[in-house]
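Students often ask why we bother encoding 3D structure as a string. The short answer is that it lets us treat folding as translation between two languages. Here is a chain of 294 residues written in the first language.
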Amino acid sequence: MKIGDLLDRIRNLSWGAADILRAYARGDQPPYGFSKALDVEDGGDGPVSAADLAVNSWLIDGLQNHFPLAGWELLSEETAKDSYKKGMPINKEWLWILDPLDGTKDFLQGTGEYAVHLALLRDNKPIFGIVLIPELEELWIGVVGKGAWCEDRLGTIKKLNFSKRTELSELILVSSRNHRNEKLEKLISSFTFGGTKSVGSVGCKIASILRGEADIYFSLSGKTAPKDWDMAAPDIVIQAAGGDFTHADGRSLEYNNGDLLQNGFLIASHGLCHSSICNITLKKLKEIDPDFVV
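And here it is in the second language, the structure alphabet:
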């Protein structure tokens, strides 16, 4: 299996997923025979909709049908409850990690700040990731060791545009619109940034850094924590682009380690001053909560 062949298939599947999600977002009949009804339930893992399930099926079936002998496994937000047991990593050479609809609340609120995340690991080492933002017609692709770029539906490539800002007083912070807590608010208010932006999906946040609209992103666990599928693809894309995504103490994020939760204090940035950002924010967090585990 060649990476080029795989990327070509992923491109086709991605734009099909974009069409499915945009149809649901507008209340139109989805393509490819999926049900029009948008049935939202507030289950134990958060909102679940017909749109999530449709994209999940579209991508999984598309990969399996095109590469029937690949022998890979898939970890998805929509299937984890049936296939994943805590403390037991998936024992497969090739592993897909999928979030068919990251930013479900934004999707339902109509902000357009939702995304599809898809990452491929080999022996738990990142190979490539994609972040698809349907409403902007952006497909962000990151290939480890090769770089990252953005394509539109016609295949036109848009170059990365990391900002050159390095002074703390100039940096733009992007943070969550729907997942904020008191500790995060205290941490953010302890800085004097050049500006802040509230954005939905993690993929959309990372894309804002890749475009140069923002410079850093904080994820601080509260009562809940992001999971592997929230972080894997955005992590791979920004790292392939030359940025950073780590715990505040500099540790890399790990996936498929027996715990789906990405607990702690996570920081993504354009990479120009990542270490100093980590050091400063870690010190401030310890002042706010000395017992917080990063």
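Translate back mentally: The first strand starts at residue 41 and ends at 43. Keep this in mind for the problem set.
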